[in-house]
Amino acid sequence: MRLSHFEYRVPKTLEEAIELLESGGPDARLMAGGTDLLMKMKHGAIKPKLVISLKKIDGLDTIAFSEKTGLTIGATALLADVASHPDIIKHYPAVAEAARGTANVQVRNMGTVVGNLCNASPAADNAPTLLAMGTTVHIQGAGGKRDLPLEQFFKGPGLTALKGAEIVTALTVPLPPLNAGAAYLSLSARGKLDCTAVGVAAMVTMKKDVCDDLRLFIAACGPTPLRAPGAEEIMRGKTPADDLLERAGEQAAGEASPINDLRASADYRTRVVAVLTSRVIKEASKRALKR
Amino acid sequence: MKQVITLSVNGDPYTVAVHPWQTLNEVLRENLNLTGVKLGCGEGDCGACTVLVDGRAVSSCLSLAVEMEGKEILTVEGLAPSGETLHPIQEAFIEKGAIQCGFCTCGMEMAALHLLEKNPSPTEAEIREGIAGNLCRCTGYAKIVEAIAAAAEKMRESSERKSS
Ligand SMILES: Cc1cc2nc3c(=O)[nH]c(=O)nc-3n(C[C@H](O)[C@H](O)[C@H](O)COP(=O)(O)OP(=O)(O)OC[C@H]3O[C@@H](n4cnc5c(N)ncnc54)[C@H](O)[C@@H]3O)c2cc1C
Ligand code: FES
Ligand code: FES
């Protein structure tokens, strides 16, 4: 399994990378960690003529936190560094846990959080939590810069809202309110190692013991990570008691549209969505009350 | 077109001309004859090809050699450079019987080294997480986990001896 032949370039600036991407057209691919890209090339799914590495662009690997602007995760920030960053563990534990639950040690030392999103797998382990927490995607292209809510970023399996020669430069995750908590739970055949069969993330905002707001996202149960607005509505304004959590779980299972594949059957996925949904809302509300 | 890269492998400097599509695994095995670096799945799943790049465990089968300019690579051959005295991780693998066919061993030991350098006293769960990317078809893992715990103890003792 050797790689098909390609030209490799390492631009030093974003402008240079955008120019290369524009001139290469559909034959050019960006590479961050390469853990998805090189796999697809080994399988012969794609045969790019030009591979553009983002790794030598200054400042793109930032991980920065401030109370005001929240968390910034740069395009080449590694999964391993997001998983172990003290500010992320402290203020965004669910983001760190999702990164730590992605793949294995070696892949986390190569792959990036932004690459995980740009690859646009419906099963991307970092997507649900970042969606639940209201992440913004920063994009730069030949026409300039734009910002997009992550909720509008995924368009289908392997498809994103990126147009032409656009590059995701960073993500920002706002600091959740003091009375909010987030959590991510996933299930797959080999523990956390292989591709997730079902993943569910929740961000719950509590007012005393009442769920004031909920954002709920499901991975690997549709063409993109999905939101479950019906389940969210069931919880709003109510105390997260067990019977209500169960109802929200069933509602979320109804909102998911899973398929049969080698990782799990659609029927199994539907049942697991119900269970994980009630567990993850419970965990997120517990965290909200603790903060 | 080939590109010339300069890198350090097991402490020795190398200058190699590589094609952009050559993986680090291919260059280590084929150009530098470091066949302790194994090739198993070639897809990041099995860990047999694990090496350290600037101290981090990575899959050499999913890394491009051209990206290694200026990097320090450590392979299993660099664990016991003299070829006489073994590294504590290697000693522990032998003592605990953590090797059967041996195909996974080199990658396992490199993953273990990465773990123990970050976390000198790992719990059993942390050891298992540390080698989660390394498959072994023979041992059933129990003896590998024991060996890494024993190696951790050896390495702690020798660093205490050095510092006292
Ligand atoms: C053994 C193994 C296990 C895995 N397990 C998991 C798992 O458990 N969960 C999971 O979610 N994933 C898993 N993956 C998939 C992969 O490792 C992750 O998706 C990883 O985060 C991808 O990051 P990367 O930097 O390597 O991306 P790359 O491969 O570099 O890029 C991925 C795609 O995004 C594009 N891209 C990258 N950066 C940008 C950018 N800044 N702007 C625009 N486009 C960009 C690339 O062109 C490419 O198409 C696994 C992979 C392997 C090999
Ligand atoms: S050969 Fe690289 S992970 Fe299997
Ligand atoms: S000893 Fe044979 S694969 Fe591990």
Briefly characterize the structure.
The complex is a heterodimer of chains A (291) and B (164). Chain A is an alpha+beta fold and 291 residues long. Chain A has helices at residues 14-24, 37-42, 79-84, 86-91, 93-100, 105-108, 113-118, 127-132, 229-235, 242-255, 266-290; strands at 7-9, 28-31, 50-53, 63-66, 70-74, 136-141, 144-149, 154-156, 159-160, 167-173, 180-187, 198-207, 210-219, 226-227.
CATH class of the largest domain in chain A: Alpha Beta
- Domain count of chain B: 2
Give the N-to-C terminal Cα separation of chain A.
50 Å
What's the total count of β strands of chain A? Answer: 14
Write down the overall mean pLDDT of chain A. 96
Helix content of chain B: 25-40%
Give me the strand/helix succession of chain A: EHEHEEEHHHHHHEEEEEEEEEHHH
Broad structural category of chain B: alpha+beta
Question: Between the first and last Cα atoms of chain B, what is the distance in angstroms?
Answer: 54 Å
Number of domains of chain A: 3
H-E string of chain B:
EEHEEEHHHH
**CATH second-level architecture of the largest domain in chain A:** 2-Layer Sandwich
Biggest chain contact: A-B, 27 and 31 residues
Number of DSSP strand runs of chain B: 5
Topology-level CATH name of the largest domain in chain A = Uridine Diphospho-n-acetylenolpyruvylglucosamine Reductase, domain 3
